[in-house]
Amino acid sequence: xxxxxxxxxxxxxxxxxxxxxxxxxxxxxxxxxxxxxxxxxxxxxxxxxxxxxxxxxxxxxxxxxxxxxxxxxxxxxxxxxxxxxxxxxxxxxxxxxxxxxxxxxxxxxxxxxxxxxxxxxxxxxxxxxxxxxxxxxxxxxxxxxxxxxxxxxxxxxxxxxxxxxxxxxxxxx
Length: 173
Fold this sequence. Notes:
This protein is mostly helical. The protein has three domains: 1-47, no CATH class; 49-124; 126-169, no CATH class. It contains three helices and five strands, in the order E-H-E-H-H-E-E-E. The longest helix has 75 residues, at 49-123. The model is unreliable at 1-8 and 20-44 (pLDDT under 50).
């Protein structure tokens, strides 16, 4: 048993060599033939060795050409994938740079705002309030008294002024 081209394909190769159109013989088109590991049919004679060799060389050349085309297209696909990957990497790098810049800007702005708030809070301390004529009133436990309903008759209060303290006794409400 030898591997060979099917008989109809061999006849098609003969017709092609004679310049006749293979498809005009009402045979299905088989561009590369179909190989099988069987004899040449029922009692059919084997094509000549030169015809088989010629068909093999043509098939081999067609396969080699197809491999070259596939390799070339695969390389183009690989190159495109590498290019797309590099572009994506560069785009991602640019976006990360923008995010980092935005984060730095936000931190700088937040730092400036917190410094301004600390200055404002420091400027509103009790000493500043006392210099404007206000007083700080506390009970004996040092709880700030800010409303009248926090006091009762007989309660001892400590009042802080700008220049010192006074203890007083609530006599009425």
